[in-house]
C-alpha cells in the first residue's frame, strides 16, 4: 500500500515522540493494560492536574449554565437518547437508506468491516485519484484507526488542521480529550514547540500562536487535493453529513480539495433532518457550554453544475470496527448512542485528576472506560470499569442519557462471571461470603477487624495495611472505625 | 423503500439486531415534542432577537435601510482596511448595486463569476447573502450553488452578509423543517460568528481559519 513517490515529507516521522506521552503510551501498551500504575502516575503530575482540571471544570460549569436555557433539559436529553436509540435499533434499515441516498446525490459509499479495510479503501481512493496533499479535520474515528499516520507512511503530506490536532501532530503527541485534544498541554509547552518547529522566537501569547498556525495552514488549505473528515451525524433521509466546528478548518476540508473522503462510524446515523434540531441543541451545549458552534457544515455531495468550489468527488466510508458486536448485546447497545461530546469527561472527578492518556485508548474518560473494553476486549482492559467512583456525574451530563455507571457495574459483574478477576481474589471473596453468612463468625470477624484497624489508625485514618490488603490503602485512606459497631449502638438504643 | 444496497457489514448489523430479513415497512422515528424542544415561540421581533443572539456569538449586526446598505458596506470595509472584495452573484446584492458603489469608493470589488477559486484566497472581504437566518442561535445559513460559492464566506478575513428580515426563522426546528422541504442543494454552511478556537488553555482567539470579522446587515 504505497503511493507514487515525490509526495511531501512526513511530519510525524521526523520528530521524536513527546516524552511525557511516550512514557504513557509505553505503559498503556502493556498487556494486560494496567490502569492503576498509570493513574497513580498521572495524578502525581501536578502540572497535568492543574491544566486539565482548570480547563474541563470551566467547560463543565459553562455546560451547566447553558442547560438552564432549555425549558426541560432532562426531557430533551431523553428525546435525543430515544432518537439515537431508535436509529441503532433499526441500523440496518437506515444504513441502506443512507447509502442509497448518498449514491443518489452523486457520492460513493464504502463499507469497512474493520480498521484494515477502512485504511485500504481510503488509500486506494487516494492512489486512484493521484491525490497526495491531505487536509484532515478532527475526527475520533480516524484516531481509532490511526489514519493520519497510515496516510503519511504511504508517502502523503497529511496535515491535521484543527489547531489542537495540529499541535498534537507536530509534537507527535496523542489527543487526551474528545473535544479539546491538547487539554493536557500548557501554553508554555506549545510556545516552545512552535518556536522549535517554525524556527521563530518564543512567544506564549495564544493569539500569536494561533495566527502563526493560521498562516502556516492557509497555504496547505490552498494547495490541498484530498480532504478528510469524520462526521457528527449521518442523516439517512437525505444522505448528507452534519459536522460542527468553530475554527473553519473543516469548512476548508470540504471546500478546496478535489476529493473529499469522510470516514464515519456506522452508529452515527439519525433518521431525519429535523432530528438535527434536537441533537444540535444538545451537542454544543454539552461539549463546550456554548449555545451553538460557529460553523455547522451540511455536506456529502459533489459540487453541483457550475460550482467552482466544493469536492468533485465524494466518498463516504462507513466503518463497523466492532460496533456491530456491541449492537448484538442488548445490554450494551445503548452505548452506541454516544455523540462524542466529551461532557462525561468534563464531569468526571477521575478524568479531571488524571487526564486522558491514562485511559490507554483514543476514547478516554467515563465513556472510554466503558467502550474501550467492549471494543478491545474485557480481558485486556479489565482495569477500566474500575476507573470510576460511580458518582453518576457522567450519566447526569450525558446528552443522550447513556447510563454509564450502570454499565460499568455490569462490566464488573462480567469480569467476575468470566473469572477475569484472578484466582486469589475469587478465593478471598468466597471465603468472605462463607464467613459472613454465619452471624457468629460475622460478629467475631467484625470485632477483630475493628480492634486491628483502630490500632493501625493514625489521626483518624488507616493509611497502611499489610500484605494482601496493601493494595487497598495504596491509593486510598480508610477512616478509623467507630468505637462501637452499629449492632452495639442499636442494642443500647433499644435498652 | 430503499434501493438495493447490500453489503456484508449491513448483513452483520441485521443479524446483530436479530433480524433475518430487511424491514419491509419504514420504522417510525420518535415524535418531536415541541413543548420542550422549541426555544423560540414568538414570531415577532425576529430581527432584534437575531441581532441579540448573533452579537452574543461575536457577530456584528446592524439593521439598516435598503438605500444605505451599499454606503454602509463601503464604510465598514474601509474601516477594516479591506482593499479588495468579492460578491456572490445573487439578486439582492445585484439589486442594491453594491459592486458599482464599492468600486467608486475605491474598493476593488468583483463578482464570484469573475474569479477562480484560487484567486479567492487573495481577497480581503467576501460579501454574500444568506438563504436563512436563525434567530435562536444568531446563525446565517447559506445554500451552496454556482452563484453563491463556499469560499466567499470562508477565506477572506472579513465576511459581510446582507439579509432581509423575511429569511429569519425563529428556531432551529423551523430551520430544519424548511430545509427538509426546500432542500439543501450540494450542501449548506451555517455561520454563527467569526471563526474561533479555545484550544490553548481555553483562551478564545478569533480568526483562526475562517473570517475574523463577520458583519450582518439586516435590510429593514
Describe this protein's structure:
The complex is a heterodimer of chains A (495) and B (220). Chain A has 495 residues and is an alpha/beta fold. Chain A is 51% helix and 10% strand. Chain A contains 23 helices and 12 strands. Chain A has a 6-stranded parallel beta sheet, sandwiched between helices. Chain A has a 4-stranded mixed beta sheet with strand order 8-5-6-9, with helices on both faces. A two-stranded antiparallel ribbon of chain A has the order 11-12. In chain A, helix 3 crosses helix 13 and helix 4 crosses helix 13 (274-288). The radius of gyration of chain A is 25 Å and the shape is globular. The relative contact order of chain A is 0.13. Residues 1-13 of chain A have low confidence and may be disordered. Chain B has 220 residues and is of the alpha/beta class. Chain B is 26% helix and 22% strand. Chain B contains 7 helices and 12 strands. Chain B has helices at 8-16, 34-37, 46-56, 69-79, 91-95, 98-104, 172-182, and strands at residues 60-64, 84-87, 108-111, 125-128, 132-134, 139-143, 158-163, 168-169, 188-191, 196-197, 205-206, 213-219. In chain B, the strands form 3 sheets. Chain B has a 6-stranded parallel beta sheet, sandwiched between helices. Chain B has a 4-stranded mixed beta sheet with strand order 8-5-6-9. Chain B has a two-stranded antiparallel ribbon with strand order 10-11. In chain B, a hairpin with a 4-residue loop joins strand 5 (132-134) and strand 6. In chain B, 49% of the residues are buried. At the A-B interface, helix 3, helix 4, helix 5, strand 1 and helix 9 of A face helix 1, helix 2, helix 7, strand 9 and strand 10 of B. Strand 9 of chain A pairs antiparallel with strand 9 of chain B.
